[in-house]
Amino acid sequence: MILNEMIKNTSEPQTIDTLVESLKKLGLYQGDTVIVHASLSKIGYVIGGIETLFKAILKVVGALGTIIVPTQTMDNSDPKNWQNPAVPESWHDKIRELIPAYDKKTTPTRSMGKFAEYIRNYPGTERSSHPQVSFAAFGFHAKKIVKTHVLTPKFGMQTPLGALYNLDDVKILMIGTDATTNTSLHLAEALSTKYKVKETSGCAMNIDNKRQWVTYEDKAYDSDQFVEIETEFLKKHKVNTITLGLAETKLYQFKKIVDFAVGYLDK
């Protein structure tokens, strides 16, 4: 059904050449490090689909560029907090006991979209070790970016987001997705001294080659507030925007919007 709608709404299909041209026009360059959030269906019909989109981005950033995607696995969590659907309380202990431990090589993403899952499986991709909010990276800086990912704070400076903050000229590419998907803003929540809401999380992970259920305390990260942050940011800063096929597409400077968000949350 989605494919039928994409074909119906597309006057001319996108190709690798049209995508490359648009991405360059947007401001993506050779050597860029870019976090990608993409909804392929919003673009319209792309000849070759996800593979073509990936190859187009890769062609633009080149051999010295790096592509990063969030590869979260939030189904590896305490079942008492599950909604849509919830599970019976009588199942909770059994789920905590038996849910598979996170494995960065094999654990699939959850609700991250087909593009993120494509990158996760792409040969040569590196992935971070967090059992719930991992990142995958492909390209020049991939190993450096995913090398460290502490359990808590899971979006702080000792994570792929922190590694990206310490690199120059990192960009965020949003293709047909809204502000709530902008995972980079979780770094601002972690860095904010005023945002202090806490929660306890649980997950299954391997420690010394043994599966264990662990709990940890961290900030209660809330992507719903990202819409308001983006709205205020766009009032004061110019962001490169184009229509990629049918998808509104924005290119943010990573440090600029993260620093703005920290200041916004601190107020």
From TrEMBL:
Q: What is its EC number?
A: 2.3.1.-
Q: What class of enzyme is it?
A: transferase
Q: Which spans of this chain does the record mark as coiled coil?
A: none
Q: Which reaction does it catalyse?
A: a 2-deoxystreptamine antibiotic + acetyl-CoA = an N(3)-acetyl-2-deoxystreptamine antibiotic + CoA + H(+)
Q: Which UniProt keywords apply?
A: Acyltransferase, Antibiotic resistance, Transferase
What is any one GO biological process for this UniProt entry?
response to antibiotic
GO MF annotations for this entry? Answer: aminoglycoside 3-N-acetyltransferase activity
Please give the family membership noted in the entry. Belongs to the antibiotic N-acetyltransferase family.
Q: What is this protein called?
A: Aminoglycoside N(3)-acetyltransferase
The protein's organism comes out as Alteracholeplasma palmae (strain ATCC 49389 / J233) (Acholeplasma palmae)
